[in-house]
Amino acid sequence: MTYFEGISTIAYEGRGSKNPLAFKHYNPKEVVAGKTMEEHLRFAVAYWHTFTANGTDPFGAGTMVRNWDRYTGLDLAKARAEASFEFITKLGVPFFAFHDRDIAPEGATLQETNKNLDVIVEMMKQFMKDTGVKLLWNTQNMFTNPRFVHGAGTTSNADVYAYAAAQVKKSLEIGKELGAENYVFWGGREGYETLLNTNMKLELDNLAHLYRMAIDYAQEIGFDAQFLIEPKPKEPTKHQYDFDAATTMNFLRTYGLQDHFKLNLEANHATLAGHTFEHEIRVASINGMLGSLDANQGDMLLGWDTDEFPQDLTQTTLTMYEVLKNGGIGRGGVNFDAKVRRASFEQEDLFFAHIAGMDAYAKGLKVAAKLIEDRVLEEVVESRYRSFQVGIGAEIAAGTATLKSLEAYAYQNHPIRNVSGRQERIKAVVNEYLLSE
Ligand code: XUL
Ligand code: CO
After folding, report:
1. Three-state SS for 291?
2. Which of 156, 303, 376, 395 is 20 to 30 A away from residue 113, measured at CA?
3. What pairing do the DSSP bridges indicate for beta strands 31-32 and 35-36?
4. Residues pairing with 97 in the sheet
5. Burial (CB count within 10 angstroms: exposed 0-12, middle 13-18, buried 19+), residue 192
6. 271-326 pLDDT, tens per residue?
7. In whole angstroms, how far apart are CA 319 and each of 90, 214, 252?
8. What pLDDT was estimated at residue 295?
9. Has residue 134 got a pLDDT over 90?
10. What span, in angstroms and rounded, lies between the C-alpha atoms of 291 and 75?
């Protein structure tokens, strides 16, 4: 059965191609900064947005027209799995990612739900073997079902906590079965609405305990994925505990979990937290905590997570700059946690959207690599901080200065002179690279 009739493998045709079903910049085997684009970018398709979501919003019903929707129940899940591998292989993306509930429907009991999962996981295992497509990460959806109304790892109801733990256990087993490279926790409802009814300390202790049990169980079954926490400041809860990179790292350190996790950072989550994506990546990177990326972009006029496909080239350049400076994305990847707009309801739009995102990231990678090769920003930064290379600055940097020695220096050093930060000039140079590369 073919789900994307009339669409063949997406090829690289290069700049100037007018074919909407071809890459203009993403050339998987092209070497940039010592590695192929494919190796740098490690793209993944997000199962939930691309194969499961139907375009519903708070004001209207689903709009997506999908030819697998002629089925229901487990048959629908099977058709989706088939369609997903056709799509991923035609697009030429090496990875995919999913939540447990994206791939198989819930049954009447947890046992039945897990049986449904087993059927689809078995199918996927075969598809993965046949196509070479790999699982970047899997995770558990502990936010959609009404049982998670008070949270999962941070719920006020111990019975729900137990259910959540069972769900995590099953998902870890699935991750092992499918050889997932990473395993993600996104705390969809791990937060609170009002402190008036909230025991914050107990909720955080319980969440840490859930993470600890997950690490222990993964070890027990020999599942060696990189564990990731995905920060987000709000939505669906008003205040989510994993607010941003810094807050999440503090949580991990408080509970002694920092050696077991890295961060999965998402562009639109960063902007919701009042940060740029590159800020979040830098914070993680300088702490050795950069794990993986969820690629998308928000809308600066809207205050929620719009999860648009990334096409802002400055943004993808600055993102890939941070990734290259980090020494790469390691076992992580660039997962398109992005959805086509509600009005882009045809199946072909799924290709157009991913091609746009992949080209935007490929271009960003090339420009970032060139900026680094030419040491454009390195020279700016080195020169800006050169006062810490010599004299009193070198003493400060070496940690040998004291309040007394600095006072003695300040007494005899006046007037103080500052130099311009040259922000506008530097941004113009980045634009020049974008236009010429
Ligand atoms: C929600 C979000 C999730 C996580 C996985 O904003 O980003 O889809 O990536 O649960
Ligand atoms: Co995400």
Report:
1. strand
2. 156
3. antiparallel
4. 46, 137
5. buried
6. 999 999 999 999 999 999 999 999 999 999 999 999 999 999 999 999 999 999 99
7. 26, 30, 24
8. 98
9. yes
10. 35
Q: Which residues surround ligand 1 with Cβ inside 6 Å? A: 99, 139, 184, 186, 230, 232, 266, 294, 305, 337
Residue 1 pLDDT more than 90?
Answer: no
For residues 85 and 65, give the distance between their C-alpha atoms in angstroms, rounded to a whole number.
18
Mutational test site, ligand 1, from 265, 294, 305, 335, max ligand atoms within 8 Å of CB: 294
Give the pLDDT of residue 437: 80
**Ligand nearest to the backbone CA of 137:** 1
**CB count, 10 Å around CB of 392?**
16
DSSP state at residue 196: G
Cis-peptide, bond into residue 415, ω within 30° of zero: yes
Contact 333, 292 (CB under 8 A): yes
Which DSSP string do the residues of 74-139 spell out, in sequence order? HHHHHHHHHHHHHHHHHHT-SEEEEEHHHHS---SSHHHHHHHHHHHHHHHHHHHHHH--EEEEEE
The residues that are catalytic are 99, 102
Q: Global pTM?
A: 0.98
Q: How far is the CA of 418 from the centre of ligand 2 (A)?
A: 42
Q: How many CB atoms lie within 10 A of CB 220?
A: 9
For the purposes of burial, counting CB atoms within 10 Å of the CB of 427, is it exposed (0-12), middle (13-18) or buried (19 or more)? exposed
H/E element, 154: none
CA of 272 to the centre of ligand 1 (A): 13
Run of H or E residues at 193: none
Tell me which residue has its CA closest to atom 3 in ligand 1.
186
Alpha carbon of 402 to ligand 1 centroid (Å): 47
- 348-385 pLDDT tens trace: 999 999 999 999 999 999 999 999 999 999 999 999 99
Index of the ligand 1 atom closest to the CA of residue 307:
6
Average pLDDT over all residues of the chain: 98
- In DSSP notation, 212-248 reads HHHHHHHHHHT--PEEEEE--SSSSSSEESS-SHHHH
pLDDT band at 432 (very low <50, low <70, confident <90, very high): very high
Single-letter amino acid, residue 216 = D
Ligand 2: centre distance to CA 182 (Å): 13
Q: Return the closest-CA partner of residue 204 out of 160, 154, 247.
A: 154
Please state the atom number of ligand 1 nearest to the C-alpha of residue 186: 10
Q: Are 55 and 342 in contact (CB under 8 A)?
A: yes
